[in-house]
Amino acid sequence: MQKLSLFLLFALLFLGCVQKEEAKYCTVGIAGREKTLNLSAEIADTSAKRAEGLMHREFLCENCSMLFVFEEEGRHAMWMKNTLIPLDMVFISGEGRVVDVKADVPPCKTKICESYLPGEGAKYALEVNAGWSERNGITAGSFFYKGCKDYLQQ
To answer: Domain 22-145 belongs to what architecture?
Structure first.
């Protein structure tokens, strides 16, 4: 019993010392059907932030997004584990060209979740509310304007 109590004490002390990394935000633009659209993007530029993504969030405002920044361009898999809202996944090359859009991706409600891969390599993935891409004419070939000079390669 004493060992268990000691273990729990150390576990609580350790968890109390671990601080969650502060979220970083910036504005990004993407060329839509009729105009360039600006979005507030939460930056997911570390392994931990990319793994957590938009998990457990019940709401994403209309012009809000999460921008996943990968170390290298590639066919990075995305999933919807513990994601509560349907999303569009916009995959973007390092040059800023949209290479694929996975539209209306539903939340995963099972233990095993489907993975979503772009048709070609991407350096970034932009998650927005489901239907946003279609409403705004975002398709493969659209151009992504990287803002966020402090966080992204220009």
So the answer is: Sandwich (2.60)
